[in-house]
Amino acid sequence: MFHRNIKLIIAGLIIATGIWQFTEGNIGNGIFLILLSAIPIFLYFKNEFILLAFLKLRKQDFEGAKKWLAYIKNPETALVRKQQGYFNYLHGIMLSQTNINQAEKYFKKAIELGLSMDMDLAVAKLNLAGVAMTRRRKLEATSLLNEAKKLDKQNMLKDQITMMKDQMKKI
């Protein structure tokens, strides 16, 4: 909604107003404003449209997620590096259902830009391994599967990884 620098300016103004309330003797208002300043600071690091797109994807609403991601006009300037990674990651997940070639580009760019959570990185590498496997690039697929297995610390992708390894043995 707002550019990332505007979010910091808003947070700074709210903090300054909170300090002013402290000096006026309105301690409750000052505390409330200091706590309220946490919202724009949080939204500086976590883009609100990406969060809403994640919520839509949880409900398998791909059209709703595309709608929220469409609100981000210039991801290179409006988003921090990790947010750009998640922007590409979400596009890759949505396109992996229909267009594998474009999904591969988005997943590679997401890995290049970086993802915060190991689980998201493991899912991206697992999808890239699937793309490599469909293109008969067995060495690349095995290395990506091994990396995904290392990143999957909670064993949530264990079944998918073993299934893909079994399919690779047939190739």
TrEMBL record:
UniProt cross-references to InterPro entries, sorted A to Z: TPR-like_helical_dom_sf
Name assigned to this protein: DUF2892 domain-containing protein
Transmembrane helix is among the record's keywords = yes
Q: Which UniProt keywords apply?
A: Membrane, Transmembrane, Transmembrane helix
What Gene3D superfamilies does the record point to? Tetratricopeptide repeat domain (1.25.40.10)
**Which superkingdom is the protein from?**
Bacteria
Transmembrane ranges, per UniProt, are 31-55
